[in-house]
Amino acid sequence: MQLHLAVVLLCVTAGLFAIAGAEDPYRFFDWNVTFGDIYPLGVRQTGILINGQFPGPDIHSVTNDNLIINVHNSLNEPFLISWSGIQQRRNSYEDGVYGTTCPIPPGKNFTYILQVKDQIGSFFYFPSLAFHKAAGGFGGIRILSRPRIPVPFPDPAGDYTVLIGDWYKSNHTNLKARLDRGKKLPFPDGILINGRGPGGASFNVEQGKTYRLRISNVGLQNSLNFRIQNHRLTLVEVEGTHTLQTTYSSIDLHLGQSCSVLFKADQPAKDYYIAVSTRFTSRVLTSTAILRYSNSAGPVSGPPPGGPIIQIDWSLNQARSIRTNLTASGPRPNPQGSYHYGLINTTRTIRLANSAGQVNGKQRYAVNSVSFVPADTPLKLADYFKIGGVFRVGSISDNPYGGKIYLDTSVMQADYRAFIEIVFQNNENIVQSWHLDGYSFFVVGMDGGQWTTASRREYNLRDAVSRCTTQVYPKSWTAIYVALDNVGMWNLRSEFWARQYLGQQFYLRVYTTSTSLRDEYPIPKNALLCGRASGRHTRPL
C-alpha cells in the first residue's frame, strides 16, 4: 500500500514539473475535512473543520510557489475548496468551483495543484458547494514577496490573519434547506473574529512595535467595519496590490474583500478592544476581540469604539481614496505603475445589473435577468471534452434589458487578450459585492445613480487600485477595466452568499482557438471526472 502511494505521488509530482517549472519551490499540504462540533456563539453547531481546526490552517507561500494541497473529504457529502484571489494562471481546472472542478466525493481525496504565479498579498480559501461556507472550512492565504523584491514598508514585528464575517447559529444544512424552499435568509445572529464570538479572540503585541493585520471578510451577507480602540490603521495592501499608505480610524471591508493594515502599538500598556460591526443595517451587530500588550497593566475598559453605521458617503469616499502605490514593486521588481492601463483602449463594454424576484413561486437572484442554474457537468470539462448540450455561449447578454428573471446556465464569451470595461449597475437597496475568479481588475470609478457614457469622465485612469472583489453601493454603479490575459472558464459572482447560491453568478469563458501551452495548460492528469464527462480520459501519466 505504501509503495503504491509512493508511486502515485511520484507520478503526480513528476507531472507537475511539466506544468509549473522545476525552478519554483513546492509546498505540500495534507488536509482532512471533517464535520465537528463548534460553539462560536455559545450554542453547539456542526462546523466544517480542516485538520481539526476552525477556521482552517493558514497557507503561507511566496510568489511563484507551487502549492500541492491534498484534500481528503471525510464529510458525508461532496465537497470543493475554492481559492479566492488566486488567479490559477492558464489553469481554471483548479479553481474549485462547480463550473470548473468536479466535487470530491465523500470518502475520497483530490490533490489541488496551484501556482501563485506573479502574485503577492492577502487572500482566503473557502468551501464553494452546498452553502458549506456557512459552516466554516475557510482560512487565510498569504503570499509573501520574493527575498530580493523590495516591499514598501519595513518587516513588521508580527503578521496576523484576521478572518471576520457574519454568522448564523443555525447549521448550514438548515440555511440551505430554507434557500432550497425558495425563502430568504433572516438577519445573521452575530459576527465572528477568527472563528470566535465577542471577546473570544486575542492578539498579543509588544509596546512600540508595528504589526500587520491581513483582514478578510469571509461572511455571508454584510459589509463590516474594522477598528482598534485608540489605534490608527495604515492601509498597505489590497488583494495583491500595494496601496498608497493612507491612515484611517477604521476601514470598511465588503463581502469577499481582503486587505492588509499596519498599526503601531504606541498606546499606554493595557488591553484594547478590536471591534467589528455591520454596515448599512438598521440593526447593528458588533463583535470584539482583544489587543493585548505584553506588559499590559489592565483589562479593556469602557465600551468598544463606535464606528460608522449607515453612512454611505463615508464608505464611498474611503473607497475612492484607496489607490495604487505607483512606485512600489508588486510581485516583480518593476514598479506597479509601469502598466499604464489608462492609455489602453477598451474593445468592449459589458453592463451587468443585479436583480431579485420570484421564479415559479421561489426566491431567485439574477444578473441581466438570468438566474444561474448549475449544469450536470462542470462547464470547463464540457468545454474540454466538447460535450454538447451542457451550456450555451451567449446565454447571458452584454446589457440588462429589464425583463423577468429566468433560469439558465449562463455563460458569456470573451476574447483572449481583449481589454474590456465592465459596469456593475446596482438598482437595489443593498450593498452588492462582485468577485471575478482568475483576474485582478482596475476599479476605475464608482458613483450613485445610473451609469452613462458620460460617467467615464469621472474615471481614475492613473492609479486605480487593482483587486479581485469590488463593492457597488445601493442605487449606484461601479466600473472596472480588465485585461483578459488568462484563458479559461471563470466564475463572476455575487459575494452575498445566498444570492450567489440562488443564481446571482455566471461564467466568463475567455477563449482562444490556440492550443498552445503558453495560453492554457491541458486538463490535469488527476482531474476528477463527473456528470457527462464520467468515463472519459484526461491524459496518460
Automatic annotation (TrEMBL):
Question: InterPro entries annotated for this entry?
Answer: Cu-oxidase-like_N, Cu-oxidase_2nd, Cu-oxidase_C, Cu-oxidase_fam, Cupredoxin, CuRO_1_AAO-like, CuRO_3_AO-like
Molecular function terms, GO-annotated: copper ion binding; oxidoreductase activity
Q: Pfam family example for this protein? A: Cu-oxidase_2
Is NADP there in the keyword field?
no
Q: Which family does it belong to?
A: Belongs to the multicopper oxidase family.
PANTHER family under this entry? MULTI-COPPER OXIDASE, OS04G0561900 PROTEIN
What is the protein name given in its UniProt record? L-ascorbate oxidase homolog
Originating organism = Gossypium armourianum
